[in-house]
Amino acid sequence: MIVDYHMHLRNGREEIAHDTWSVEPFVEAARTARVDEIGFTEHVYYFRQTRSLWTVPYQTERCVYDLEAYVTAITGARERGLPVKLGLEVDYVTGREDETRELLAPYPWDYLLGSIHFIDGLGIDGKPRLLDAVGVDDGWRRYFETLAGAASSGLFDSLSHPDLVKIFGERAQSFDYDPVADAIAESGVAVEVSTAGLRKPVHELYPHPNFLAACRKRGVPVTLGSDAHSPDVVGRDFDRARELLRSVGYETVTVFERRQARQEPLG
Ligand SMILES: [Zn+2]
Ligand SMILES: [Zn+2]
User: Fold this and answer.
1) Does an H or E element contain 148, and which?
2) How far is the CA of 45 from the centre of ligand 2 (A)?
């Protein structure tokens, strides 16, 4: 089994289009790419229902779409028997766990991805950047502390692009993945192997093989994601992701249904 559990629903002009008909080109593309099941994971901050969570202008400026419409677009396709799952890419904000949980509780998610794009108003993949403000070593330390917090929060089913902090190729002098892998293992959350990093300045899969090996050693489950914003990217470079997974000993992938996880043999 191969799943692509990270993509953003867009129309043919790559505009946000939370409607059932925009789902179908993604399903078609998945079939072509031999991906068995896909999951849509729109950014949580695009929805006006989540407005109260945000303080960063990048996020507050974007809360204009209706979460109900998004959910209906995906569940409509799901009910028609298409191999699609309802997910959301949720920014983790330290200290706002209860509010995040309450805001998202009413919807029939198959899974929630936990992401860290900002820490204390500073961007990981956007400006103004955390690493410019505090330096690479400290930026890495803070990023992974926050990731451990995201794991321990229990809010998420999988952690997306888990070492996003390396996106521009900057690396801490030396880094020990054991503490964050311990927190992840203890929480039961999965980690995503993402091919998006191959299309970024770092030109690498997320996460680093050493990080993934630390997860494997502790029995942490995995998902796969392309982070596609258009159908042609669905399943992109999944041969590379599979190779990485197998190289550290993974033989199964996680399938989510209404926030229940099960393992399927990795195809
Ligand atoms: Zn992301
Ligand atoms: Zn994404």
Assistant:
1) helix 136-153
2) 12
pLDDT in tens, 11-26: 999 999 999 999 999 9
The reported pTM is: 0.98
Q: Which ligand has its closest atom nearest to the C-alpha of 162? A: 1
Each residue of 55-111: pLDDT tens digit?
999 999 999 999 999 999 999 999 999 999 999 999 999 999 999 999 999 999 999
3-state secondary structure of 205: coil
Identify the burial level of 108 via C-beta atoms within 10 angstroms of its C-beta, where 0-12 means exposed, 13-18 middle and 19 or more buried. exposed
Give Cβ neighbours of residue 221 (< 8 Å, ≥ 6 apart).
190, 191, 252, 254, 261, 263
Residue with the two structure tokens 């998610």:
109
CA 236 to ligand 2 center in whole angstroms: 14
C-alpha dist (Å) from residue 167 to 131, 134, 140, 222, 264: 11, 16, 11, 20, 30
Distance 55 CA to ligand 1 centre (A): 18
Q: Which residues contact 239 (CB under 8 A, 6 or more apart)?
A: none
Please give the mean pLDDT across all residues of the chain: 98
**H/E segment holding residue 38:** strand 37-43
Give me 265's structure tokens.
């043999």
